[in-house]
């Protein structure tokens, strides 16, 4: 122990230092006088240490409570008499009248009066804080010892509460019972409203008052939510703002267009944000944002989007900035951006449907021409024309869709910040209208578009440009649901391109195929690739045959050169090469070739069977073409000369067969249609078409038809046109309907029927594959899995799947499980 | 207003004046408040604080402590300042009065059972004032 160390004694505190007795009343009188000095800002005369010592002594004498109460009472009195009076003086009658809603004062007067009031208040509050901080310093010992021990709130805080009670919650005047606090709120709100209306206000002043409200609490718990700012002001602020913005949005929607509305809304949001930072408290930010968003956006976005100048207008007029605004606003209130997504989807669908309808209309328009034509003879040609029209319509459709896609891509990129959700929506909408059940031609049109480009479009384009074109086609293809239908059309068109040598570049064709391979998978392009392979093999064959013939010895100047394409019958859509299947099947073998041709045909068959035994060749005369050199007798030319004319005629194989008939015919004789048909055995429809192109088409009228008309009738007579003249040496006799065109309705029905047939096989195959693996399966599940398997190719109808299942059951691939609760099937090995 | 000086004067009740760094002096709460330029009391204008409750010997020790505290404020594991036991009670009272020196002295009185150093200081002060008893006799030892 310390004292136990002996000589070292703890010295006692010296007596009398603190004064033996203490006269509380006197001491308090000193302190009170000093406090008055402090309140009147005369502190420099006072000794802090002296005042502190007084308070120290009182507390040590266990008179802390008395002291506390005295100080408290003193402050209350001071606030109630001095401060309240000075505040009340600031209240001009105008201000009071205005606050009651009866104000007819100008904004400027209001602002000045309001600022004066707030300034006074700020001053009073500031003074109170400074004085109380000094008082609290003086009374530090009381706070530390008495307040801590007796659990009373520190005198400073108590004084702040006094300010609330004596000033803020006090009535405005003797006769007016409204609390000053309400007036403060009103004045601040009024100032804010002025700022919203474009006035300049003293933000710093308001901020000071806001801080005052923030520093005071509604009750004694002093929790965050109980701050006067939150309880009293913020609520008022949010309420008035809500009303204001509700009114404003209504007015704006009526008066201005959507773009202006959006930029206004955005500006308001920004303003409110700034206001919270500069004038109010940042904690209000999210709350007021919500109010503004609710009133300006959430409750209005639908109207906004639907406005006459809304999203539709913006899309149509490429108002990218405004769309971006709408997007931005929508995103603020709705993470899914429902409204704008809906509007965009609707617009895409409408525009897409418009393009669809245009295409349909364009393809149908020419059909009405023959109706106006008095003679019925034009019908055939008109139909051809209408087919051409349709092709143009198809290409226009594709281009329109692509343009639409470009448009929306741009909007998506520039206005929607490449939002993935919107991309999905846009893609879905494109899919919707492209696969619309009212417009079944998209697959065909896309294929035609590629066809057109392969034949003409890409001529003279750089690799890059070509690639863009192909990419575009792929983009569209992505949307198409029934990929199998597209494959069918593509095969058909490709077939024509290959056989008729219409492709500009084989390279590009292959490029396209590989693109499709990437997009749609190996399966899809298998047959297309096989077609290319056939072509390559055919070239080799032709070369081989030529060599073979050369090797036979003696050169025959009249020998006919043969170029041949051997096509695998399963891969090539041969039936689509013109004419109907039934007709072709019946007549194909019976076409009589002229002797010279027949000879070389035999020669090739022999050559081929040597190379590949066991393969059967079927000659498809309807697909071939021939170059003939024709000599026309001397005739007077336009320039007066008189000489023989030679022309190289490029005609179809049938045309060649027909023309060769006239080789053996005296010039003045003629052949009737029936005679030609009997001698050549060319199918009726092909014959009609070929004769039309040889005798009717004005530029290639190598035969003369009697009587002259556009239609070919069985009784017509044909003779060689000796006076034929052409501008060029080489003349191409186009066979009507030679190119790839949009199908007529009848053709399309057939294509669809064929497509359906092949779908049936696909479905059956899928069902069997699934069942083989699962052995037993419920109906619903089977259907779902089948749909899943076929997803990449097409979307079968459920009824079709049902029928296929029935059929499989009939053929004993499957059986129903008896007694199962739900329909189930079992696989029969 | 005068400019705040680097040094301030502390005056004991027996007339000793200690000129010490303002920063060090302000470690004591009471001195700090007395010199607070915001309040502008007389002490602030004169840069001089009269301390009539503290005598020269104790005030010297107080000043020593203020410097000691300032010097080691940032470091850890500082050994206690050497305090003569015979001064410790008076120092304790001075610490209570000046605010925020208690911790320095409390280890010395830490051995006193039942009460915290502060309580002891206040109790002893009151006792002295009230009963005029010789403190030593009532100190548990």
UniProtKB/TrEMBL annotation, chain A:
Keyword Transmembrane helix applies: no
Family matches, as PROSITE patterns: CULLIN_2
Keyword flag Iron: no
SUPFAM superfamilies membership: Cullin homology domain, Cullin repeat-like, Winged helix' DNA-binding domain
Keywords: Isopeptide bond, Ubl conjugation
Domain called Cullin family profile: residue spans: 441-695
One MF annotation (Gene Ontology) recorded for this entry: ubiquitin protein ligase binding
GO biological process, one term: ubiquitin-dependent protein catabolic process
InterPro entries per record: Cullin (IPR045093), Cullin-like_AB (IPR059120), Cullin_homology (IPR016158), Cullin_homology_sf (IPR036317), Cullin_N (IPR001373), Cullin_neddylation_domain (IPR019559), Cullin_repeat-like_dom_sf (IPR016159), WH-like_DNA-bd_sf (IPR036388)
Alphabetical list of Pfam families matching this protein: Cullin (PF00888), Cullin_AB (PF26557), Cullin_Nedd8 (PF10557)
Family: Belongs to the cullin family.
Annotated protein name in UniProt: Cullin-domain-containing protein
Organism whose genome encodes this protein: Ophiobolus disseminans
TrEMBL record, chain B:
Family annotation (Pfam families): Skp1_POZ
Chief site of localization: nucleus
GO cellular component: nucleus
Keyword Phosphoprotein in annotation: no
TM ranges: none
Gene3D superfamilies linked to this entry: Potassium Channel Kv1.1, Chain A
Protein name (database record): Elongin-C
Organism: Ophiobolus disseminans
């Amino acid at each position: 122990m310390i004292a136990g160390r002996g000589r070292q004694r703890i010295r006692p505190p010296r007596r009398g230092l603190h004064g033996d007795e203490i006269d509380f009343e006197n001491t308090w009188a000193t302190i009170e006088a000093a406090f008055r000095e402090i309140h009147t800002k005369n502190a420099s005369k006072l000794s802090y240490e002296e005042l502190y010592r007084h308070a120290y002594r009182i507390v040590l004498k266990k008179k802390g409570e008395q002291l506390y109460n005295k100080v408290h009472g003193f402050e209350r009195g001071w606030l109630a008499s001095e401060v309240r009076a000075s505040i009340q003086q600031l209240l001009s009658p105008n201000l009071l009248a205005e606050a009651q809603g009866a104000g007819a004062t100008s904004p400027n007067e209001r602002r000045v009066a309001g600022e004066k009031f707030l300034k006074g208040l700020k001053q009073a509050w500031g003074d109170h804080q400074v004085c109380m901080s000094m008082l609290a310093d003086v009374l530090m010992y009381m706070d530390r010892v008495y307040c801590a021990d007796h659990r009373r709130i520190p005198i400073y805080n108590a004084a702040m509460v006094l300010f609330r009670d004596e000033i803020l919650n006090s009535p405005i005047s003797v006769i007016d019972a409204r609390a000053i606090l309400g007036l403060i709120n009103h004045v601040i709100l009024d100032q804010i409203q002025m700022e919203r209306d474009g006035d300049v206000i003293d933000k710093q002043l308001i901020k000071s008052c806001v801080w005052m409200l923030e520093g005071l609490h509604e009750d004694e718990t002093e929790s965050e939510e109980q701050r006067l700012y939150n309880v009293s002001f913020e609520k008022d602020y949010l309420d008035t703002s809500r009303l204001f913005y509700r009114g404003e949005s209504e007015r704006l929607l009526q008066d201005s267009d959507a773009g202006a509305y959006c930029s206004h809304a955005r500006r308001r949001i920004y303003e409110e944000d700034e206001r919270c930072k500069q004038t109010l408290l940042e904690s209000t930010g999210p709350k007021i944002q919500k109010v503004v968003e609710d009133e300006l956006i959430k409750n209005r976005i639908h109207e906004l989007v639907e406005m006459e100048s809304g999203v539709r207008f913006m899309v149509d007029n490429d108002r990218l900035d405004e769309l971006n605004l709408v997007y931005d606003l929508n995103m603020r209130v709705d993470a899914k951006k429902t409204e704008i997504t809906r509007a965009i989807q609707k617009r895409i669908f409408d525009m897409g449907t418009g393009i669809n309808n245009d295409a349909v209309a364009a393809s149908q328009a020419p059909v009405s021409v023959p109706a106006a034509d008095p003679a019925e003879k034009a019908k055939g040609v008109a139909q051809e024309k209408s087919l051409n029209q349709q092709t143009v319509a198809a290409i226009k459709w594709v281009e329109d869709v692509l343009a639409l896609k470009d448009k929306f891509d741009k909007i998506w990129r520039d206005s929607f910040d490449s939002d993935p959700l919107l991309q999905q929506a846009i893609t879905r909408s494109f899919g919707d209208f492209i696969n619309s059940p009212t417009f079944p031609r998209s697959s065909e049109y896309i294929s035609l578009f590629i066809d057109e480009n392969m034949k003409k479009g890409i001529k003279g384009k750089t690799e890059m440009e070509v690639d863009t074109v192909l990419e575009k086609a792929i983009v569209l293809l992505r949307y198409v649901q029934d990929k199998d239908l597209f494959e069918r059309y593509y095969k058909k068109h490709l077939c024509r391109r290959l056989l008729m040598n219409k492709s500009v570049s084989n390279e590009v064709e292959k490029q396209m195929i590989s693109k499709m391979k990437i997009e749609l998978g190996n399966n899809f392009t298998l047959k297309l690739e096989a077609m290319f392979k056939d072509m390559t093999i055919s070239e080799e064959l032709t070369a081989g045959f030529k060599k073979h013939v050369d090797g036979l010895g003696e050169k025959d100047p009249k020998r006919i050169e043969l170029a041949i394409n051997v096509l695998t019958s399963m891969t090539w859509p041969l039936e689509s090469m013109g004419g109907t299947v039934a007709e072709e099947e019946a007549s194909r073998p019976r076409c009589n070739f002229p002797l010279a041709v027949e000879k070389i045909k035999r020669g090739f068959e022999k050559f081929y069977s040597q190379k590949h035994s066991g393969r059967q060749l079927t000659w498809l005369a309807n697909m071939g073409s021939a170059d003939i050199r024709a000599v026309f007798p001397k005739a007077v030319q336009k320039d007066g000369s008189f000489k023989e004319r030679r022309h190289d005629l490029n005609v179809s194989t049938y045309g060649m067969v027909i023309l060769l008939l006239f080789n053996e015919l005296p010039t003045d004789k003629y052949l009737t249609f029936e005679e030609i048909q009997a001698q050549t055995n060319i199918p009726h429809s092909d014959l009609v078409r070929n004769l039309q192109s040889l005798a009717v088409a004005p530029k290639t009228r190598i035969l003369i038809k009697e009587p002259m008309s556009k239609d070919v009738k069985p009784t017509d007579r044909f003779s060689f046109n000796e006076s034929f003249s052409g501008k060029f040496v080489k003349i191409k006799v186009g066979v009507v309907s030679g190119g790839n065109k949009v199908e007529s309705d009848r053709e399309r029905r057939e294509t669809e029927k064929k497509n359906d047939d092949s779908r049936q096989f696909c479905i059956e195959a899928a069902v069997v594959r699934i069942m083989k693996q699962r052995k037993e399966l419920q109906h619903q599940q089977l259907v779902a899995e089948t749909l899943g398997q076929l997803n990449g190719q097409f979307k079968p109808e459920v009824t079709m799947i049902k029928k296929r299942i029935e059929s499989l059951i009939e053929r004993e691939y499957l059986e129903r499980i008896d007694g199962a609760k739900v329909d189930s099937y079992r696989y029969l090995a | 207003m005068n400019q705040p000086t680097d040094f301030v004067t502390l005056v004991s009740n027996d007339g000793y004046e200690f000129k010490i760094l303002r920063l060090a002096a302000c470690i004591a709460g009471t001195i700090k408040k007395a010199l607070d330029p915001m309040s502008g009391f007389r002490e602030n204008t004169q840069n001089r604080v009269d301390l009539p409750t503290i005598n020269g010997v104790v005030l010297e020790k107080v000043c020593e402590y203020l410097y000691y505290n300032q010097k080691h404020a940032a470091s850890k594991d500082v050994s206690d300042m050497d305090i003569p036991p015979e001064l410790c009670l008076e120092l304790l009272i001075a610490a209570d009065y000046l605010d925020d020196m208690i911790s320095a002295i409390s280890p010395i009185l830490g051995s006193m059972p039942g009460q915290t150093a502060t309580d002891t200081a206040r109790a002893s002060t009151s006792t002295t004032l009230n009963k005029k008893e010789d403190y030593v006799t009532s100190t548990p030892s």
